[in-house]
Specification:
Helices cover about 45% and strands about 20% of the residues. By secondary structure, the protein is of the alpha+beta class. The protein has 3 domains: about 35-205, Galactose-binding domain-like (Jelly Rolls, Sandwich), CATH 2.60.120.260; about 210-370 and about 425-440, no CATH class; about 465-685, PPM-type phosphatase domain (Phosphatase 2c, domain 1). α7 packs antiparallel against α8. The N and C termini lie far apart (about 140 Å).
Length: about 700
């Protein structure tokens, strides 16, 4: 009995094992065949369960291949969202079809492929009928878009066979979710007309939903062009340059998302362009805030801003270029991708730092509004975009949730990101318009001040050289700006002598012109009491010390007497040229630096045929477009062969004027040569060049 019981138990166990072995597994069993009737009445989705297998084998395209052992998944979701999260590489879909077209319909059929990640080939009964991109080893992929292919069937519209899809998905990047890879929706089967109608309806719906995004990005681009044109009128106003580039880059990056672009340009190139484009948007916004908040004068903050920009743009460029080789990318490339993504996240946070620095300053109301909107915009942006980084590990849902938030208006979908973009564009444009108005008012005020300064300087700089008995004097004065820092005066003394002073005030523009007014007024006052060049320079120096706001002036004072007698004193100025040779005079410090500095008189004689030239440093410091200076050697040659003040000045201007240019030439013209007494020259006063 015991033996019989044991034997019966063994038989029961064996029967159970055999029965279990005979049960069909989840992957086994009859392959489902999708019967499609009356296909001509409209497009039909090829849905339901598909045979699915990881890997790659071209034999799997053959209709006779036995795929009954394959697993089954649906085509309405990616394989990553079903049974193979984070899988990349090759996989095959197969679907057995039994097609019966309507007798009244067009016997021609087409299949509409949905967006597929990332490249694929479509086979019907072992024959390739279409593809998107290129598969490895020379992979080329495009952003996912729909494509239709003709399905070869007999004219009677009856066919059965196997639709096989060979799919390849590239390695995941730092922001890729685990739910990626393969088909995203079932393919659609129908006649070409119905397929075209379906594509047209879907395109219309997509355009309608994205209408607001298209319009706002066109506005971004238009405002960017206007801002850049405004900058070209005043290239010192860097704020409009950065704002124009920011707005234009924001509008242009949208173009890469248009179907006509991403269906014809490989994804790797688009990704590279997008990474650089987004970086330009971030970097130019940093510069906009730096100038709008008036932080550019803070050298430390300015250096940090450019350093962050370098990191941001560098990381974006490396990340974009990495996409060009991503199909063969290994572990090192994936680490580089993660590192550059991290650098991009951290550097974008610097916008919040600039906003904080700006809020601490006393700003106009419209600028404070920019700071507030920019803060919330970038907090939202960081939460939305950066939470996608490493999402397949973190499983954060913040980014996807933000993409779904928004509202519809007139059939157009407006998400939260577009709301923030619009607000930022509006407040920035308003702030820059107000900035432009204030800048125009300030510029008008400055122009009025310059006009007044020009009128004052026109009085101080003689337009017509006064007649000096016994001498022919010519002058040329060309300021580098509206008003200049060069000056000269010709003053007649009661003794019959004449004072000629020529000088150069440090700096340019209005400040230099005001100092010129001070100097000329002081010189004319001193000339009423003093006649010696050294005494006049000493008195002028004492009055200028502490009144030049850190500046100084060089000056050359010449006293002309009868019969060619001359006395010259130099205060840090370029020595004059006599007959093409530099006149050796003792130099001293410029005026306005040290109240106790001394000066020295030098006597010499001008005879008939002599030529004396006084000039400012605008002549030797003229610079051509190549950056080469006119220099002292060219100046010496010029003064040796040219005696016209205007021709000397014009030669320097033609070379490339950068500073104020003033030239005076003096020649003796005795009325009665027999009346000239015998005068012995001071030979030591001349030095050959």
């Amino acid at each position: 009995m015991c033996r019989a019981a044991v034997l019966f138990a063994l038989l029961l166990c064996n029967s159970a094992v055999v029965a279990g072995a005979l049960q069909p597994s989840a992957k086994a069993g009859p392959v489902p065949i999708l019967a499609i009737e009356n296909i001509g009445r409209g497009p039909v989705p090829i849905d339901g369960e598909w045979q699915f297998h990881l890997g790659d084998d071209m034999r799997w395209a053959a209709p006779a291949y036995d795929d009954s052992e394959w697993e089954r998944i649906t085509a309405d979701k990616t394989w990553g969202a079903q049974t193979h999260p984070s899988y990349t590489g090759f996989a095959w879909y197969r679907r057995h079809l039994d097609i019966h077209a309507s007798p009244l319909s067009n016997p021609k059929l087409a299949i509409l492929m949905p967006p597929v990640e990332d490249a694929y080939e479509v086979f019907w009964n072992g024959v390739r009928i279409g593809y998107q991109g290129k598969l490895p080893p020379h992979a080329v992929r495009y952003l996912e878009h729909r494509q239709s292919f003709a399905l070869p069937v007999p004219e009677e519209g009856v066919a059965d066979g196997v639709l096989a899809i060979r799919v390849w998905t590239a390695k995941l990047v730092s922001y890729s979710a685990e739910t990626t890879g393969g088909l995203t929706a079932p393919p659609i089967l129908g006649n070409p007309v119905s397929i075209a109608d379906r594509v047209g309806a879907q395109d219309f719906t997509a355009i309608r939903k994205s209408f607001y995004r298209r319009i706002i990005n066109i506005i971004f681009a238009i405002i960017g062009v206007v801002a850049l044109l405004t900058w070209t009128r005043n290239r010192q106003n860097w704020l409009f340059l950065w704002f124009g580039l920011w707005s234009l880059a924001h509008g242009i990056t949208f173009l890469t998302r248009l179907p006509t672009i991403y269906s014809s340009v490989p994804y790797t190139i688009l990704h590279c362009a997008l990474q650089v484009g987004y970086s330009i948007v971030d970097c130019t916004l940093m510069l906009v805030l730096l100038y709008l908040f008036r932080l550019q004068d803070d050298s430390r903050l300015r250096r940090w801003t450019w350093l962050v920009i370098a990191f941001n743009f560098g990381a974006a460029s490396v990340n974009g270029l990495l996409a060009l080789f991503w199909s063969e990318a290994g572990l090192v490339a994936q680490w580089v991708d993660a590192l550059t993504a991290a650098v991009g996240v951290i550097s974008r946070m610097y916008v919040v730092v600039l906003v904080y620095q700006g809020i601490k300053r006393k700003l106009d109301l419209e600028v404070k509004l920019v700071a507030v909107v920019c803060f919330f915009h970038y907090v939202f942006s960081l939460l939305r975009i950066e939470t996608f980084q490493g999402i397949r590990f973190t499983h954060w849902k913040v980014g996807p949730w933000f993409d779904l938030t928004g509202f519809e208006f007139a059939g157009s979908r407006i998400n939260t990101r577009e709301v923030f973009d619009t607000l930022l564009l509006l407040v920035l444009t308003h702030a820059l318009v107000r900035y432009a108005v204030r800048d125009h008012e300030k510029q008008t005020e400055i122009e009025n001040e310059l006009k007044s300064a020009r009128e004052v300087q026109r009085v101080m700089i003689p337009e017509a050289i006064p007649q000096v008995p016994g001498y022919a004097i010519q002058g040329a004065y060309h300021p580098a700006r509206e008003v200049g820092g060069d000056f000269f005066q010709i003053i007649s003394l009661d003794s019959g002598a004449t004072l000629v002073i020529l000088g150069d005030v440090s700096g340019k523009g209005l400040k230099a012109a005001m100092n010129v007014a001070l100097i000329i007024g002081t010189v004319r006052t001193l000339a009423e009491f003093e006649s010696s060049p050294t005494d006049i320079l000493a008195g002028l120096n004492r009055r200028l010390v502490g009144r030049m706001q850190g500046g100084f002036t060089t000056a050359l004072l010449l006293r002309l007497e009868r019969f060619g007698r001359c006395t010259v004193a130099n205060a840090g100025h370029l020595p004059p040229f006599l007959n093409g040779n530099e006149l050796a005079v003792q130099e001293s410090l410029p005026l306005g630096i040290d109240a106790g500095v001394g000066f020295a008189d030098h006597d010499f004689v001008l005879r008939k045929g002599d030529h004396l030239t006084l000039y400012t440093d605008g002549v030797p410091e003229a610079r051509c477009k190549k950056g080469e200076l006119f220099g002292f050697e060219r100046t010496r040659i010029l003064l040796s062969n040219t005696f016209s003040a205007e021709s000397v000045a014009q030669a320097a201007r033609d070379f490339g004027q950068e500073d104020d240019i003033t030239v005076l030439t003096i020649e003796p013209i005795p009325v009665d040569e027999s009346a000239v007494p015998e005068i012995v020259d001071n030979a030591a006063s001349l030095a050959s060049a």
